[in-house]
Amino acid sequence: MRSSIGKVSWALVMLVVGSRAVLAQETMPDTAHRFSVFVGPTLAASSSRLDFSLANNVGLGISRDFRGQDALFRPRVTASYDQWRSTTQQTIRVGSVVAEALLVPGELVTNVRPYLFGGLGLFSRLPMSGTVVVGGSLQSFDLKPYTYAGWSSGVGVEVGRAFVQYRFMTAVQNGPSFAGLNLGYRL
Question: CA 58 → CA 32, 44, 62, distances in Å?
Answer without folding.
Answer: 28, 11, 14
